[in-house]
Design goal:
A hairpin with a 5-residue loop joins strand 4 and strand 5. A 5-stranded antiparallel sheet has the order 1-2-3-4-5. By secondary structure, it is of the alpha+beta class. It has 4 helices and 5 strands, in the order H-H-H-H-E-E-E-E-E. The longest helix has 25 residues. Helix 2 runs antiparallel to helix 3.
Length: 163
Amino acid sequence: MRAATRPACTLALAGALLLALPGCETNQQTGQVLGGVGGAVLGHQLGGLVGGSNARLIGAAVGAAAGVWVGGAIGQRLDERDRQLAEQATRAALDAPPTNRQPVGWTSNTNAGVSGNAQVVNVARNTAGGECRMVRQVAIVNGQEVTDQQQFCRGADGRWALA
């Protein structure tokens, strides 16, 4: 994909996401939409590293399917406040020194039996030389564990962004 069309694709995906979210009636549906879009974007990017436009399309499709499954599983089990706690734990894990790979835990204030943690499991450099960290995120709901891994890279502004 040419660099000039990337912003248009990003805007199209963001627009599709904004149009889809109001129709979501449950946390599971919201998780599926967010996971599907995020998975498609990540799969598209990873496919571009492997090959041409066909690899990007295959990567986007596989990423979207995986994102829908993981996003739906997590969204079904966590309410908005729990997702905020999980996000705060992920930020705290990312902001810790790179040598500190201890899990950062969280526990729901409103839902009994709901907790989780975020842990940096790998630190690497991207092709531009920027720091990236793979974060393992775990949600435990009534004894059932749902796990996801996402890669974040630090931008020029010092903020972490999903890679």
